[in-house]
Write a structure and sequence with these properties.
The complex is a heterodimer of chains A (240) and B (301). Chain A has 240 residues and is an alpha/beta fold. In chain A, 39% of the residues lie in helices and 22% in strands.
Chain lengths: 240, 301
């Protein structure tokens, strides 16, 4: 599945039990894996090896993942980054995306899910360019989402949406044209694996559609993929 | 509580001020009432000493009382923490033991089918531990996270929770009833987080299903009571012994009947935490051999 030559991944985690098991798994999935055990080492290895993608733990001694992310982005390095978070806080997750991470996974996770994330992020990446998740504003047709103030406009009209719906829309818009499962949305937006979860997602999507006046049968924003999840079908542009 | 303390503190001052104002306004200026106090130094210093000692004794008594209350609270908290750690230890021990045994099985030369079975059981235990960790995190997060305050349509929420319970394969063996009042007016809305409230009702229903026996009747109902909406989940199950009733809302608590029943032991603790974040309350009434009613009260508004 991996492109030729092999996609190189820098895996950064201070927990050797995790890197020792995850690195071989990623190698077997067709990636060339290098491991770093803290933030400083990660920055050195990025400078030396120019990996195609980073998998970055957030909680690390010396230089944590968030600081590594910040420094890379400040220096104009837009290599895709997937954060491994331990915090379940919704605000922390939102912050991770705002600071320019391409995606994130809550620990503990299924390694297959990580590989799926890596592939999706690579597919979306435009080499050398900032990802959508680093944009302050996202636009799709007449729909605009301001990611710093968490406000949404349709044309000139500001929409009254609950914070969760805004976050949901934000995630869908930063991952356009990607099939996002309900479980995935739960994990990133709610941060919880609710037993009632998939219904909660459907309710919120319905709320969003009503607000966006989006016809599920002929969607211009959110499409339902029966039995699998949702996809944002509009063309999303980054706005300053 | 605070008001009466202020009253007692201010009463002498107010009384004095009242008397002063009376004499001031009574124009009785000619013979103003003057009190002369004369005492020899010995008696004066004795009374002053007594007064100060009394005051000090009163202050120390009050401080001691406050300390006692605080100590009681902190020993209660310490006791709860100790119980929680013991229960956590217990919850972790079983899956870990099963995993070690499963891995030991993998080590030996087994048939492919047996290896696969051992692997599957280890994975099931890992999922069980993951669920426990994620439920614990939910509880911790619930105490700090922002709770949405949108108007929640309780009847719709109850219907949703009810249909989820009906979809469970074991639900066919129970009599499930849902009753939502329509007259004289529909249930008022509650301000809150619809996802959390759905989770709370879902957990109550799931708990009732888990501890009842096939053939039992389960009822989900709601009504308005003054300034609150009351949601009840009632069952004709075995009931909860009186000594266990205060503990069922505690984290990781398992009653006698709960041993060996799958689950993290955090379902009801989550319900309580959700209720508290909505300024609501939980409660239960139960009779052994007859059944149990769990109630969730949420303020209207």
């Amino acid at each position: 599945m991996a492109t030729n030559p092999k996609t190189s991944i820098l895996l950064v985690d201070d927990e050797t039990a995790i890197t020792a098991n995850l690195a071989p798994f990623l190698s077997r999935s067709g990636f060339a894996v290098t491991v770093a055990s803290n933030g400083e080492e990660a920055l050195q290895k990025v400078a030396a090896l120019h990996p195609d993608l980073l998998v970055l733990d957030v909680l690390m001694p010396r230089l944590d993942g968030r600081e590594v992310l910040r420094q890379l982005r400040k220096n104009g390095n837009w290599a895709p980054i997937i954060l491994l978070t331990q915090v379940g806080e919704a605000s922390e997750r939102a912050m991770a995306l705002e600071e320019g991470a391409d995606d994130y996974l809550n620990k503990p996770f299924d390694p297959h899910e990580l590989v799926a994330r890596i592939r999706a992020v690579l597919r979306r990446a435009r080499p050398g360019q900032p990802p959508l998740s680093a944009a302050a504003r996202l636009a799709c047709g007449s729909l605009t989402l301001d990611r710093t103030s968490h406000r949404v406009w349709l044309g000139e009209v500001e929409l009254a949406l609950t914070p969760k719906s805004v976050m949901l829309l934000e995630y869908m818009m930063t991952h356009p044209d990607e099939l996002v499962s309900r479980e995935r949305l739960l994990d990133v937006v709610w941060g919880w694996d609710y037993p009632v979860g998939t219904r909660a997602v459907d309710t919120r999507i319905a709320e969003l559609r009503r607000a966006l006046d989006d016809d599920p049968a002929r969607p211009s924003y959110i499409e339902t993929i029966p039995g699998q999840g949702y996809r944002f079908v509009g063309m999303v542009e980054a706005r300053p | 509580m605070k008001t009466w303390r202020w009253l007692i503190t201010l009463a002498p001052c107010l009384l004095g001020a009242g008397i002063a104002v009376y004499f001031f306004l009574s124009f009785d200026l000619h013979h103003d009432h003057i009190v002369y106090l004369r005492a020899d130094l010995g008696t004066f210093s004795l009374l002053l000493g007594l007064g100060l000692s009394g005051l000090a004794a009163l202050i120390f008594a009050l401080l001691g009382w406050a300390d006692g209350v605080r100590l009681q609270a902190s020993t209660a908290a310490a006791e709860e923490r100790r119980r929680f750690l013991l229960r956590l230890d217990h919850e972790l021990k079983n899956p870990l033991t099963a995993m070690r045994a499963g891995l030991a099985n993998l080590d030996e030369s087994l048939s492919v089918a047996a290896r696969r079975e051992a692997l599957a059981s280890v994975e099931a235990q890992i999922l069980r531990l993951s669920r426990l960790v994620s439920d614990l995190r939910k509880l911790a997060e619930l105490e700090v996270r922002l709770v949405e305050r949108s108007p929640v349509d309780i009847p719709a929420l109850l219907r949703e929770a009810f249909s989820m319970a009906q979809e469970k394969p074991e639900a066919a063996e129970y009599h499930l009833n849902l009753s939502i009042p329509q007259a004289p007016w529909p249930l008022p809305k509650v301000r809150g987080d619809p996802d959390l409230l759905l989770l709370a009702v879902h957990n109550l229903l799931e708990n009732a299903l888990k501890f009842s026996r096939p053939g039992d009747t389960l009822e989900l109902r709601a009504f308005e009571d003054g300034t609150e909406v009351v949601i009840e989940v009632a069952d004709t199950g075995p009931g909860i012994p009186e000594e266990e009733q205060p503990h069922v809302w505690e984290e990781l608590y398992r009653g006698e009947a709960g041993r060996g029943v799958p689950g993290s032991g955090l379902g009801l603790a989550l319900v309580r935490a959700i209720a508290e974040r909505h300024n609501g309350r939980v409660g239960l009434r139960s009779r052994l051999g007859q059944g149990t009613v769990f109630t969730l009260r949420l303020p209207i508004g």
